[in-house]
Amino acid sequence: MISEKRAKKERCDGSALIVVLWVVGLLSMLIGSFAFDAHVESRITSYYKKRTKAQYLAKSGIEIAEMLMAGSAEIKKDQEKTEEFEDDQWFEAKKRLKTGASLMGIEQELGDGKIILDIIPEPARRNVNMLKDDDWERVLEVGGVPEELWPELIDSFNDWTDKDDDPRMDGAETEDYYETLEPPYRADNDVLDTVEELLLVKGFTKTILFGGSLQVLEEDDPVVISGIADLLTTYGDGKVNVNAAPMRVLMTLPLGDEAELVARAIIEEREGEGWIDDTGSDEEEEDYSFKSIGDFSGRIPDAPAEVRNYLSVDSKTYRIKSIGDVHGVKRTVWCIVRYANKSLTILRWREEEQ
User: Distance between CA atoms of 43 and 87, rounded to whole angstroms?
Assistant: First the structure.
């Protein structure tokens, strides 16, 4: 009888122990879950705080750009760093901007983050709305687009932007092409508002604009092209800022049979041997930029006379890219602005996360 009671008691004790263990296990899981949730929420909160700070830093970069533009308007192209500018850490950046050149990779620490800023004259690109057929051929050649595609691309662009509805030999208009698509749409018959609008034009694909692998004919191997979007803009009077245009854009100009050599000579001549490193350094550097088209002609004698009609030496429209970086969390503000009469006008604005 005693042994039965003892056995019953031991069974009860064992059951109680199991229940206790289950309760402890469940509590441990709940506490662990709460701790994990708290950790995740803390990480998310920290990320959004950094993201918000980075966004404000990126917007602050636009204010720095406006300050530099205003400052550049107050100095001369050949301005030396006199006592008046002795304490101005931005003097060389302002002076370079005054010459019409680009400013790349300027960094400014602010709080627990930093701003990374590029200011590039928009006329460092070709205005797509002012390209003639021979300009298009050079643009497509620099972009690596196979020559057999050129007639369709050029005629289709001309049909898209002209005022009539008559298709060219290799082009396309609303009735014969765009209305047959799904969904259908109409040819704009006007200038492009953005370079990306080219994607609506017959023949222009993302690969042709932005580069990549391009299959021309099924029986041929695909070719890798660099694309043309970085060569084009929809702003400006069509003249290219020779103090800011990169090698690829210079190659789209009518520089003759030795175009690559002439383009390289232009860059070497305008930058000199010790050109500014574009970081806002306060070390004064000699200015090698072209002061006028006459100055360009005198220093680049191998350039065809025709090319002078394509060039300018300054800018009023700029492409600004400002990155706010807070411990690796980045936000970017990208915009195109016009600075004139001591006033900054935003023409395009885009915010994005890196």
Answer: 41
Looking only at the bridges linking them, the beta strands covering 113-121 and 103-110 are: antiparallel
- The stretch 235-246 carries a mean pLDDT of 95
- Provide the CA 280 distance to its chain's centre, in angstroms: 20
Residue 350 forms beta bridges with which residues? 334
Query: Which pTM does this prediction carry?
Result: 0.82
Q: Helix, strand, or coil here: 308?
A: helix
**What's the chain's average pLDDT?**
88
C-beta separation of 68 from 103 below 8 A: yes
No. of helices (H) and no. of strands (E), the chain: 8, 11
296 and 262 Cβ atoms separated by less than 8 Å: no
Domain ranges for the chain, please list them. Answer: 49-126+241-353, 144-227
pLDDT of residue 276 exceeding 50? no
Q: Are 180 and 149 in contact (CB under 8 A)?
A: no
Q: pLDDT, tens digit, for every residue of 214-238?
A: 987 776 788 999 999 999 999 999 9
pLDDT greater than 90 at residue 161: yes
The CATH homologous superfamily to which domain 144-227 belongs is EpsJ-like (1.10.40.60)
H runs (alpha helix) in the chain: 2-73, 91-98, 133-142, 150-161, 206-210, 247-250, 259-271, 293-299
Contact between residue 123 and residue 242 where contact means Cβ atoms under 8 Å apart = no
Distance (Å, whole) CA 205 – CA 184: 17
